[in-house]
């Protein structure tokens, strides 16, 4: 009978690793690795903590930069209606005036439409336009000879004697006055 039990145990145990069970008097105790000194362990944990904290700060900075970039890219999205309004407000201004308006708007932190309404901007534009108009104005002739108009022979024939004498005197003054070339 013992032989049969041994055979059954062999058949059941084929391919399996036999499990050892502790006997009643013995308790199972896990093997403990020898621990390092507690001081070294604390120092190691502090060092790892500092490293992790530094990594966390670095990731937070990158997150701030990313959020700023996404916010800026969201602001770049142009609303067509707002664009039409801006164009209609700025259509009466020269490129130089628009540059000035945009600089003021950026400096003051307001929209272009609001900047156009500012008294400082209006004063600048008015002064600039007056200056440009003054520069483009045809200068007055410096010599009096160029102020007389040309008279045709028909007009001379129709003149009265008195008008003709005045005309003749003016012509003599012109010729004598140094129409020098």
Automatic annotation (TrEMBL):
Compositionally biased region (Basic and acidic residues): 151-163
Domain of life assignment: Archaea
Region listing for Disordered, in residue ranges: 1-47, 132-163
Low complexity biased stretches: 10-20, 139-150
Protein name: Uncharacterized protein
Species of origin: Candidatus Iainarchaeum sp
């Amino acid at each position: 009978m013992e032989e049969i039990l041994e055979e059954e145990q062999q058949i059941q145990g084929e391919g399996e690793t036999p499990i050892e069970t502790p006997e009643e008097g013995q308790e199972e105790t896990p093997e403990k690795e020898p621990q390092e000194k507690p001081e070294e362990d604390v120092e190691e944990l502090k060092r790892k903590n500092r490293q992790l904290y530094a990594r966390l700060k670095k990731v937070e900075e990158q997150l701030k930069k990313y959020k700023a970039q996404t916010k800026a890219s969201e602001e770049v999205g142009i609303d067509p209606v707002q664009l039409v309004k801006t164009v209609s407000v700025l259509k009466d201004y020269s490129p130089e005036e628009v540059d000035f308006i945009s600089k003021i708007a950026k400096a003051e932190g307001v929209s272009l439409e609001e900047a156009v309404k500012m008294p400082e901007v209006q004063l600048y534009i008015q002064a600039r336009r007056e200056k440009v108009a003054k520069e483009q104005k045809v200068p007055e002739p410096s010599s009096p000879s160029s102020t007389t108009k040309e008279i045709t022979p028909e007009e001379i024939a129709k003149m009265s004697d008195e008008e003709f004498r005045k005309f003749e005197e003016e012509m003599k003054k012109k010729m004598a006055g140094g129409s020098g070339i």
